[in-house]
Amino acid sequence: MRLIKFRQFIVIGVLLVCGNFSLANSTHNIYMMTLSILSYVKWSNDSPTLCVIDNSNAVKQFNLSMKAQNSTLIVKSISQDAMKTIECDAAFFSNTSALTEQKLINTSFKKNMLSFSTSNNDCEIGSSFCLQNAKNGNTIFKVNLDSLARTKVHVDPRVLLLAKNSE
């Protein structure tokens, strides 16, 4: 309960500092930002699964970051082909084109799956959340509202206010 209130305090603080409410800007790395976004999702189960696609190093980074957040998230390293047979509540792409992301999301085992990408700068197709490191070293993200709406997963609207507008 305390952790949730602390996270809400952080989001409100960032909203006040940003002023224009269009850019999510954080000194956290991409993994911490992803976990922070996931903490504002209303999950249908107590231990959601984040599938990291074709990047075992990212799984290690997530596990390190999860210790700092006391997260109940389960992180799995899977191949692109496994998305058709393994149930993931969220997917993390780091070396996949936006078009390939879109195909994998469309053919995934679970249709209401959130998706994150670090290689989809435009964020017009593919993943719901597209994360990038800004020139100043901060992590920013965009939201693909069409992709997010198709997932039918409830993400706290305060998170969406922080995203960089991709339209």
Outline of this structure?
The chain is α/β, with parallel strands linked by helices and 167 residues long. The chain has 6 helices and 9 strands. The model is unreliable at 1-25 (pLDDT under 50).
Order of helices and strands: HEHEEHEEHEEEHEH
Query: Mind telling me the C-alpha Rg?
Result: 15 Å
Oligomer: single chain
Q: Care to count the β-strands?
A: 9
Please outline the major beta sheet. Answer: 7 strands, mixed
The chain-level mean pLDDT equals: 83
Strand content: 15-25%
Distance between the termini: 35 Å
Judged by helices, strands and strand pairing, the structural class is: alpha/beta
Gross morphology: globular
Number of helices: 6
Widest sheet, order of strands: 1-8-7-6-5-3-4
Q: Tell me roughly what share of residues is in helical segments.
A: 25-40%
Model regions low in confidence, pLDDT < 50 over at least 5 residues? 1-25
Summarize this structure as a short list of keywords or feature phrases.
167 residues; alpha/beta; 6 helices; disordered N terminus; seven-stranded mixed sheet
